[in-house]
Amino acid sequence: MAMTSQLAPPAEEDPAIETAEEAKEPAEADINELCKDMFSKMATYLTGELTATSEDYKLLENMNKLTSLKYLEMKDIAINISRNLKDLNQKYAALQPYLEQINLIEEQVAALEQAAYKLDAYSKRLEAKYKKLEKR
């Protein structure tokens, strides 16, 4: 038969084909060691993740404390500003009658100044008339 001579050589001779003897299950001790190693590394990883999360929460807590202190300082500053503003308003209210008197005096001085200008203009006219009469 000519066809059988063209077939591939048997599996034992082909190095690319695994045989049942080459594919072995790892030993039970190796699997246990690998599992212990995997769980140990996973525990280390999770511990690191939890530690990082815990540190993040501690950082947030510290930031909240500092923010709270800053707001307390700002509250004290606002209270002091409010108190000073009330004091200034009271002082202004106490000065208000004097300010009104100053305004009244200013108006009177302006009126007096206008009267002085009018008197000066009148005296100049009188002087001019006197000089005119004196020349005759």
TrEMBL record:
Residue ranges, annotated region (Disordered)? 1-27
Q: Write down any Gene Ontology CC term.
A: BORC complex
The record's Pfam families line, in alphabetical order, gives: BLOC1_2
Q: Name one GO biological process term.
A: lysosome localization
Question: Could you state a single Gene Ontology molecular function term?
Answer: gamma-tubulin binding
Do you know which InterPro entries this protein is assigned to?
BLOC1_su2
Locate the compositionally biased regions of type Acidic residues. 11-20
* Superkingdom of the organism of origin: Eukaryota
Question: Which PANTHER family does the entry mention?
Answer: BIOGENESIS OF LYSOSOME-RELATED ORGANELLES COMPLEX 1 SUBUNIT 2 (PTHR46479)
Instruction: Give the protein family.
Output: Belongs to the BLOC1S2 family.
Q: What is this protein called?
A: Biogenesis of lysosome-related organelles complex 1 subunit 2 isoform A
